[in-house]
């Protein structure tokens, strides 16, 4: 059997606060880490920076929040790779401006026999992205024909900007691989699984590029838009408890009958994301065929049969060397609890969460704690095993699975006393967690150990510790070594 990959997601702040050598020593000693997933670019506090305001500090790093953290590209930006995009060579992170994370860490990792991957976080929700010159010309267009907040996957300037970064990374650095992450909730998923607010500009996209694709496929964007406007009203009514006399589910299905364009337009949106994957995969293969390319799957894959249906491992395995699944067993409890609550106020608004939950578990092939106990119990190690196995079988042997292991991922709403409320629509809004209180599931060395064992029992080729080293307690990292010792 080839060596098991033990990866860890780590950002620039950790190296700057603690020193490259210290971080590498620590993760090697504590968790037998042999692969670094270096978070660049990232504009997302889930992968970059120190613990977020309102979240606790672990027992290492600098215990001060970075209120004005912006993120971006922590490598050197080589302008020659950004010629065919109006965004140009934008993106260098303002933190540690003279420091190149890839240039500094990769050689040091190589000396120790560790692999280096770039964890490229699209961070589409991040407000600071919109500050780059011309970024506002790349935005999606919403159902009211006004620019929305996220960039459009079908916008050539936006695509080419990311492909420029890919070319820059693979030509400038001796990386072993790329993990590209795009955690976006799609328009139809949002309307089906949670109460939304129509003014947020998240039900998209009707930009000229998307309309053109619709035209090629013979789908009327006007009909799609009309359908989505009605679906937004349906969503608002059901969420407010105004269930139509025929029921929430039947009236949802009726809208699909009346506007089949709802599904067709959703397909255009999903295909835009997947085309980005294809472009990245092909670009890397063309120049560095030995380099590994993989996709990060948000935890929504575990919660939503609808999201699952649109993200087929069999299809994705043709354009991936590995798929990293976000099987976070601690944070997953509160997150799944919130997801069930959301869908019980939308497409399953005819029932209550306690009734919806057991059915969804069956549909997903999971067996977990009672609904009431989910936030405090979290998800089980068996969940990690089942999801790993499902991904592996789904990929039909064409790609390997790296299982995401939860080490101190914050659960519940942050302590609001020391943070400003987020601007609606500027949060990631996938894998959301609306729970709160001191009783929520917590990481322990034993739970890390059980999750790592379960991942390998499920057939994983590796594990990736997430979300970021800067929030992980050292004792919990040691759980990885415990599992590896048992596995032999
Ligand atoms: Zn568009």
How does this structure look, described?
This protein is α/β, with parallel strands linked by helices and 488 residues long. The chain has a single domain (5-487), classed as Glycosidases (TIM Barrel, Alpha-Beta Barrel). 42% of the residues lie in helices and 11% in strands. It has helices at 12-18, 20-31, 101-111, 156-172, 187-193, 208-217, 221-239, 248-258, 261-287, 300-303, 305-310, 313-316, 332-343, 353-364, 374-377, 381-394, 445-457, 474-487; strands spanning 5-10, 35-39, 115-121, 139-141, 147-151, 177-181, 292-297, 322-325, 400-406, 462-466. α17 links the parallel β9 and β10.
In short:
This protein is α/β, with parallel strands linked by helices. It is 42% helix and 11% strand.
Number of extended strands: 10
Strand order, sheet with most strands = 1-2-3-6-7-8-9-10
Which stretches of 5+ consecutive residues score pLDDT under 50?
none
The arrangement of helices and strands along the chain is EHHEHEEEHEHHHHHEHHHEHHHHEHEH
- In the CATH hierarchy, what is the class? Alpha Beta
Please indicate the count of domains.
Answer: 1
Question: Cofactors and ligands present?
Answer: zinc ion
**Strand content bin:** 5-15%
- Biggest sheet architecture: 8 strands, parallel, barrel
Mean pLDDT: 95
What are the SSEs and their pairings?
Layout: E1 5-10, H1 12-18, H2 20-31, E2 35-39, H3 101-111, E3 115-121, E4 139-141, E5 147-151, H4 156-172, E6 177-181, H5 187-193, H6 208-217, H7 221-239, H8 248-258, H9 261-287, E7 292-297, H10 300-303, H11 305-310, H12 313-316, E8 322-325, H13 332-343, H14 353-364, H15 374-377, H16 381-394, E9 400-406, H17 445-457, E10 462-466, H18 474-487
Parallel strand pairs: 1-2, 1-10, 2-3, 3-6, 6-7, 7-8, 8-9, 9-10
Antiparallel strand pairs: 4-5
Helix pairs in contact: 1-2, 2-18, 4-9, 7-8, 7-9, 16-17, 17-18
The protein binds zinc ion (ZN).
